[in-house]
Sequence to fold (189 residues):
Amino acid sequence: MSALTDTFRNGVDTEKMFATLDLIKAQPELARFQFRATNRWIDGAHNRSTIQDFYAAGGEDTTRGEAFEIDAGEPAILLGSDTGANPAEYLLHALAACLTTSIVYVAAARKVELTSVESTLTGDMDVRGALGVDDEVRNGFEHIAVSFRVTGNAPEEKLREVVERARKRSAVYDMVTNGVPVAVEVTTD
Fold:
């Protein structure tokens, strides 16, 4: 029973995690992934993304039995009808979720038992840019602030190290802070 307890930490199977890391080190081609989302406009600011299959470890992964559906919209003050969080809020969610997952995985790998991980994210934006009112104003966030409260069975310094390592490994943090090329293609009927 002790071995089982030692392999699961923070809800993560560390034995499986380290085996996956070893496999990817030995076969780097398995590290190539392609995640996908399709989106359809519904009405006004309301649209819906569907996420299900993806490419991973050398082939299509179709193990998800059902698609995830995510509705987006805008608040009334931005001409929407609150059909879902707006895209900027989803970006904050994606950043929070990726950083949190990274914290949990790093802590598990470093034998830190977490008791809680909470975060608050704020994104400051002047919407004049996005609304086309002022071309001198950036369209997106001017600044994002992330505040974590992390507790676990490690000293404060170790918990801070876990968060810093997670920040360095977070894919979404990397995309937000370093940008990523985006190709836009249009087909019309």
Remarks:
- The first helix runs from residue 2 to 7.
